[in-house]
Amino acid sequence: MRAALVSLMPLAKAVSACGLALPPSVQLMARGELGTLDKRAVNDGSLKPVNPNSEVHWTVDQNTRQMQVSDDAFIARDFARFNHHPNSTMYYTGGVVMNLTQHIEDLRLTFSTYSHAAPHNHNYQVIFGEGDWTVALAHAGGPNDGPLPDLSGNFLPPTMRTVSFDLMTIARWDGGWMMEEYLWSDVPRMYRELGVLPMPPADNLPDIELNSYTFPLSTQPGVNNAELNKAKMTESDDALNAGKFDAKSLHLSKDVKVYGLTDQPLDLNGFLAELKDLKKAFPDLHLENKPYRQIIAQGDWTATVAMLSGTFKGPLKLPPYLGSSPAKPNGKKFNLLHYTICRWQNGQIVEMRINADIFGILGALGIPL
């Protein structure tokens, strides 16, 4: 690896600006202006009702529209119409927590690196919701036309390359205001596209997609399977925690496609093999699902927000763009936010998108490259 990639330790605190860039917020962290998730009780703000006890309840469609308006404002750099409540809280990768003032400053730093950064929000790649929650997955990107923070927090000259990647927001709304925002973006892919990491990804990689013509919100619009799918999701994660890595226990279709861990989707056998490798590296691997931080379901779709933790006690296979040899265990721990988006059919997961905090995990473990 090149000299700049000495260690991922800085990435334990490096996050994405509304999911769109990695270390602008490092500057805020260096000034001691950001909070971190590990400084709060892990279950603080845990599972909130999909309709809290509030006098004002907007519909899922209304909240979805507010999500689009918020992203329209981001694209227009119009924070007066950003739809974030003054007391809103943003949860970033790396365990970082921001208030609205910090979030907006982070976005401005992002614009200095990607002046035309924008998500594709008409239409989103995936959009659904339940109660006061929305789940949005979008293709996002833009040219890198400003100073680029490398993986050690130093600045490189603009590459003038264009990045294209997945950006996810899971948000809680109250009367048209965003109160909580969970943000994730595919930062490793961005840095591969920019040439900071090796092995640039191919264009137009397959991905999960909600499409009214092929994979709609529901294949049975008159049947509400939301509660059943949430119960099955909980059972699936129970099996994950127990190390029961088989299709029946995990409620996986024999034709399941799993996105997010590799460039090409994993099939059933490939995904089970990945889980077994992770269990060897982290024997106490645990996803906190009782309760989840949040679980949302609509039609055939579910999304989860949860804490994922583990202790590094066995060799860890790294993505090929980060190293060819397994990382050696050192006994360190991680405990970070983890996200899934799933499409269900007949009580089984047929598609799953796993949005893991890869850089955050490696940074917490102190893995040198």
TrEMBL record:
Signal peptide: 1-17
Domain of life: Eukaryota
Swiss-Prot/TrEMBL keywords: Signal
Listed GO biological process terms: polyketide metabolic process
Name of the protein described by the UniProt record: SnoaL-like domain-containing protein
